[in-house]
Specification:
The structure holds 2 protein chains of 2 kinds.
Chain A (H helix, E strand, L loop, with lengths): L1 E6 L2 H6 L3 E5 L13 H12 L1 H7 E2 L2 E2 L4 E4 L2 E3 L12 E5 L7
Parallel strand pairs in A: 1-7
Antiparallel strand pairs in A: 1-2, 3-4, 5-6, 5-7
Helix pairs in contact in A: 2-3
Chain B lengths: L4 H6 L10 H9 L2 E5 L3 H12 L4 E5 L24 H12 L4 E5 L8 H6 L3 E4 L4 H14 L3 E7 L2 E7 L7 H4 L15 H20 L8 E6 L4 E6 L13
Parallel strand pairs in B: 1-2, 1-4, 2-3, 4-5
Antiparallel strand pairs in B: 5-6, 6-7, 7-8
The complex binds zinc ion.
Chain lengths: ~100, ~250
C-alpha cells in the first residue's frame, strides 16, 4: 500500500520534507487497527523519534491537537480510520503565530 | 447607511466586485471589527479593512514599538520606536482612511477585558501569538454568537479558518488546550504574516457583505516554502467543552 503524507508548518520542519510517499505491506488479513492512518503516523513517529516524535506524540499516542486529515477530511487522532492505497494524509500541527 | 460622494469615488472599483456593489459597501461602512493584536498578521488585516471602507475598527495590543517588530508589523514606523503600538497603528490607518473610526486599547486580550472587547464588535479577526488568548476569544465569541476569523502563521506556513457560532467547529474542537509544543517566540517572515492578515481581512469582508463562501468548517493551510495549499474539512467535536452539547 502506498500513501502520500503531507506535512505542514512545524511538521514540515521536523520531517525535513513537505511530503513523502510511504509504502507499507499489508494484506486483507492485517487487523484493521494496524492498517489505520493513526497507527501509520504513530509508527512513523516512533521509528523516527527525536523532534518528530515530540511534536506528533503525547504519551506515546497521537497528540489530540494535531489536525490529521485523509483526502482533505479531518479524522480523529484518537480513533482508527482505515487507510487505502493512494490516500493522501495531511498532518497539520496547531500554530498560533501572530503579533 | 448611505454613502457620501467621496465614498462613492473612493470605492468605485471595489463596488464592481460581483455581489458587493453599493449595498455591500454600505454594509462595510456600518460594520465594526475587532482586530487583536496588530502585529504581523493584524497590521495587514486592519490595513486592508481600512482600505475597504470599514466603518469602525477596534484594536487591542499592549506595549510600545520595538526594533524587532519592524520586519512585519507594517502599521508601525521606525520614527515611532518606543511609543504605543496601537496609537501608531491608529494614526497609520487614518492616514489611509480618515473616515475610519478607530478605537484603541493598549492591552492584550485577557479574561477581564475579553467580554467588552468582543461586545464592541460585529466580528473578530484573531491575530494573537498565544493559544491562551485565542481560546479566550473563541469562547467569548461563541458566548456572544459572533464570528471569529482565526488566522495564524509559523515560519513560512499559515493557517486560517472562520468560526461561526452554532454552525461550525470552534477552535477548542481542534485545540482543546494550549499545546506544549507552541513557543512564544517563533520564526516569522513579514510577507507570510501579511499574507495571512490579508486573507483574514478578506474573510471579514465576505462575512460582512455576504459575498462568496467563508471558510466555515474548513481549515486552509498554506506552505509558502513551495506554495502547497490544502483546505481540510474540519469537524465539530461532540465532546468539545466550549461548543459541544454539555
Ligand atoms: Zn468546539
Amino acid at each position: 500500500m502506498r500513501v502520500t503524507v503531507e506535512y505542514f508548518g512545524p511538521a514540515r520542519e521536523v520531517a525535513g520534507v513537505g511530503s513523502e510517499v510511504i509504502e507499507r505491506h499489508s494484506s486483507p488479513h492485517t487487523p484493521c487497527a494496524e492498517r489505520s492512518v493513526q497507527s501509520l503516523i504513530c509508527q512513523i513517529a516512533k521509528e523516527r523519534g527525536g523532534r518528530f516524535a515530540m511534536l506528533l506524540l503525547t504519551d506515546d499516542k497521537l497528540s489530540r491537537s494535531l489536525v490529521l486529515a485523509v483526502n482533505d477530511r479531518q479524522v480523529s487522532a484518537d480513533e482508527e480510520t482505515e487507510l487505502h492505497d493512494g490516500d493522501v494524509v495531511t498532518i497539520i500541527p496547531p500554530v498560533s503565530g501572530g503579533a | 447607511m448611505d454613502l457620501t460622494p467621496e465614498e462613492r469615488a473612493t470605492y468605485e472599483w471595489q463596488m464592481w466586485v460581483l455581489g458587493l456593489g453599493e449595498e455591500g459597501q454600505a454594509m462595510l461602512k456600518a460594520a465594526t471589527v475587532l482586530v487583536t493584536r496588530v502585529g504581523g498578521i493584524g497590521s495587514l488585516a486592519a490595513y486592508e479593512l481600512a482600505a475597504a471602507g470599514l466603518g469602525r475598527l477596534v484594536l487591542a495590543h499592549a506595549g510600545n514599538i520595538k526594533p524587532s517588530d519592524l520586519n512585519r508589523q507594517l502599521l508601525m514606523t521606525h520614527e515611532a520606536l518606543g511609543t504605543s503600538r496601537v496609537e501608531c497603528a491608529s494614526r497609520r490607518l487614518r492616514e489611509l482612511n480618515p473616515r475610519l473610526d478607530v478605537i484603541t486599547h493598549a492591552e492584550n486580550v485577557n479574561a477581564s477585558n475579553v467580554e467588552n472587547l468582543v461586545l464592541a464588535a460585529d466580528l473578530v479577526v484573531c491575530c494573537v501569538p498565544l493559544f491562551e488568548e485565542r481560546l479566550l476569544l473563541n469562547a467569548e465569541c461563541l458566548r456572544q454568537g459572533k464570528p471569529m476569523i482565526d488566522c495564524a502563521m509559523y515560519e513560512l506556513s499559515g493557517q486560517i479558518t472562520t468560526i461561526l457560532p452554532g454552525q461550525t467547529a470552534c477552535l477548542a474542537c481542534r485545540v482543546p488546550v494550549p499545546p506544549a509544543s507552541w513557543k512564544r517566540e517563533f520564526p516569522v517572515l513579514g510577507a507570510v504574516a501579511g499574507t495571512m492578515g490579508c486573507l483574514g481581512a478578506l474573510e471579514a469582508i465576505k462575512l460582512i457583505t455576504g459575498v462568496g463562501e467563508p471558510l466555515g468548517n474548513r481549515l486552509l493551510t498554506i506552505d509558502m516554502r513551495d506554495m502547497r495549499l490544502r483546505t481540510v474539512q474540519v469537524t465539530k467535536r461532540v465532546d468539545c467543552e466550549v461548543c459541544g452539547a454539555k
